Amino acid sequence: MDTVEHGSVEELYAAAAADFERYEIVKDLVDECIDLALNYRQSGHPGGSRSKVHLLLATLLSGAMRWDLQPSAG
Is 3 helix (H, G, I), strand (E, B) or coil? Predict the structure, then answer.
């Protein structure tokens, strides 16, 4: 397995800090989607979904995970 060199935690935080305001907007949109879905179905408990929104967004938007959307050929 190849290892990828990453900067220190401080460097990663500084690089991501510029996007924090946008992350909050996306978090608010996800919260609204959860509210709409639960209100539409007239049931459910949003606690679990809402508590994981910050973690999900931080993981997906921070670059910590890399996604390869094109399958490799052969």
Answer: coil
Mean pLDDT, residues 12-23: 83
Q: How far apart are CA 57 and CA 74, in angstroms?
A: 32
Q: Which distant-in-sequence residues (6+ apart) come within 8 Å of 55 by Cβ?
A: none
- Whole-model pTM? 0.50
Q: Taking the C-alpha atoms of 51, 52, 54 and 58 in order, what is their torsion angle to the nearest 10 degrees? A: 160
Q: Are 31 and 53 in contact (CB under 8 A)?
A: yes
Cα torsion 25, 31, 59, 63: sign: negative
Task: Return all residues near 9 (Cβ < 8 A) that are at least 6 apart.
Answer: none
- Judging by beta carbons within 10 Å of its beta carbon (0-12, 13-18, 19+), is residue 28 exposed, middle or buried? exposed
